[in-house]
């Protein structure tokens, strides 16, 4: 199994590099990459005052990459996921599933996907007969995730599913059971858990740089337009801003601390005179209490100008990300007392395509037979907290988890 061995080396190398980035002054990756026997090393020609250039890779050759079928060709697939394959090391697109064959044929031609590997929703199960497809990536409206994960699992292919996992914890439980029964992996696409700045902040926390965590404040909001879109229809979305963008704040409060909340207090706002918010909330604010005494205070809205930030407060330092959940350009800084002076540090962290990192993690899990860092259970936990948030908003009471 040379493939797995070499891929494992590269992956472990990436993990080691990520650790190094987060620890030793956030050094450039190229300085720390060990020599790989199949990696071409080029000499540095610039002076020591210049940033060192890195040679990307080694990437897996086409025939050894994990083939993905992309299900749903909307904005996320076209604008982020398909282009991200260009930066991936272990993944490649090999099939498309769409209700619009002409659109799918155009996209297949753009990405070098065989025209015979285009499927409709009705014949989706025929993916089972395509040996090139090892993973199915569900990028459909939230209310369709359960059906397509369950049907997909029956094809025997591993499943990567967009967030939010479903529209309820009951659906999420069903999806986990179906994948277990079919003996296929299930990963939820929490891209921010694979994004280098978020990972660097997690590393600061695990190294104790912030001291004991006390507070987390975060917002993820945007202004929605078209009132006819599926995001504003409860059966397809499962809710308004909370499961769509507020979920980032909730997941970050849990992921970055490594703790699980024990109590929730929340309120929602649904204006009566706005066509966009007939079925779902426009805004939601919630606070989470964790057993250690750490608390998270979050707001999310579909009715404010785009705003994405988080701030973590610990007994010996604070850290801030703004933006925190963007596709590109996330920024991290943190501050602590150094001698007699407050030292604010904005580490240089190499930006990487987080969708490529996320898909490559899943590819790695398939190649190596390991479990994803964000399995179905991770999505289920968030659904249980979101249900508690809605219950608290409805009853006006604190809800225990
Ligand atoms: P979109 O509306 O742009 O695309 C949805 C696709 O599903 C379209 O191709 C549409 O034709 C198809 N579809 C099939 N049946 C449909 C139906 N009954 N109603 C509506 N569309 C139908 O949505 P999107 O922004 O690509 O979101 C898709 C999924 O990705 C959602 O689960 C969303 O939460 C998630 N998402 C994640 C991120 C992220 O950063 N990870 C960002 C955006 C969206």
UniProtKB/TrEMBL annotation:
Report the domain of life of the source organism.
Answer: Bacteria
Cross-referenced PANTHER family, in alphabetical order?
OXIDOREDUCTASES, TRANS-1,2-DIHYDROBENZENE-1,2-DIOL DEHYDROGENASE
List every stretch annotated Disordered. Answer: 26-61
Q: Which PROSITE patterns match?
A: TAT (PS51318)
Database matches in InterPro entries: Gfo/Idh/MocA-like_OxRdtase_N, Gfo/Idh/MocA_domain, GFO_IDH_MocA-like_dom, Glc-Fru_OxRdtase_bac, NAD(P)-bd_dom_sf, TAT_signal, TAT_signal_bac_arc
Annotated GO MF terms: nucleotide binding; oxidoreductase activity
A Pfam family of the record is GFO_IDH_MocA_C3
Q: Which family does it belong to?
A: Belongs to the Gfo/Idh/MocA family.
Q: Which residues form the Gfo/Idh/MocA-like oxidoreductase N-terminal domain?
A: 67-190
The residue ranges of the GFO/IDH/MocA-like oxidoreductase domain are 199-316
> Which keywords does UniProt give here?
Oxidoreductase
The name this protein carries in UniProt is Dehydrogenase
């Amino acid at each position: 199994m040379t493939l797995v061995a070499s891929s494992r080396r590269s992956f472990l190398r990436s993990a080691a590099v990520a650790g190094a980035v987060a620890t030793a002054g956030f050094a450039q990756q190229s300085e720390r990459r060990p020599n790989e026997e199949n990696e071409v090393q080029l000499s540095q020609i610039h002076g020591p005052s210049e940033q060192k250039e890195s040679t990307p890779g080694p990437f897996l050759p086409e025939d050894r990459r994990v083939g993905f079928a992309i299900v749903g060709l909307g904005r996320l697939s076209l604008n982020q996921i398909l282009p991200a394959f260009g930066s991936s090391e272990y993944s490649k697109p090999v099939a498309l599933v769409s209700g619009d064959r002409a659109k799918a044929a155009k996209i297949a031609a753009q990405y070098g996907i065989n025209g015979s590997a285009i499927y409709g929703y009705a014949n989706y199960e025929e993916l089972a007969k395509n040996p090139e497809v090892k993973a199915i990536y569900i990028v459909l409206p939230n209310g369709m995730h359960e059906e397509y994960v369950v049907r997909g699992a029956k094809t025997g292919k591993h499943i990567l599913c967009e967030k939010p996992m479903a529209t309820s914890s009951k659906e999420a439980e069903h999806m986990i059971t179906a994948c277990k029964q079919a003996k296929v992996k299930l990963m939820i696409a929490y891209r921010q858990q694979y994004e280098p700045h978020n990972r660097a902040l997690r590393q600061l926390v695990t190294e104790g740089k912030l001291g004991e965590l006390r507070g987390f404040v975060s917002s993820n909001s945007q202004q929605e337009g078209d009132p006819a879109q599926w995001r504003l229809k409860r059966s397809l979305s499962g809710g308004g801003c909370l499961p769509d963008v507020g979920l980032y704040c909730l997941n970050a409060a849990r992921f970055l601390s490594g703790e699980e909340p024990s109590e929730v207090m929340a309120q929602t706002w649904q204006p009566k005179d706005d066509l966009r918010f007939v079925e779902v909330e426009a805004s939601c604010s919630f606070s989470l209490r964790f057993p250690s005494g750490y608390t998270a205070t979050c707001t999310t809205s579909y009715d404010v100008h785009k705003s994405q930030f988080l701030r973590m407060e610990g007994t010996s330092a604070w850290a801030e990300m703004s933006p925190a959940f963007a596709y590109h350009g996330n920024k991290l800084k943190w501050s602590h007392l150094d001698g007699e002076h407050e030292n604010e540090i904005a580490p240089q962290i190499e930006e990487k395509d987080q969708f490529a990192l996320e898909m490559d993690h899943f590819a790695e899990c398939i190649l190596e037979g390991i479990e994803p860092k964000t399995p179905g259970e991770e999505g289920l936990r968030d659904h249980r907290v979101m249900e508690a948030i809605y219950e608290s908003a409805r009853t006006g009471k604190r809800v225990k988890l």
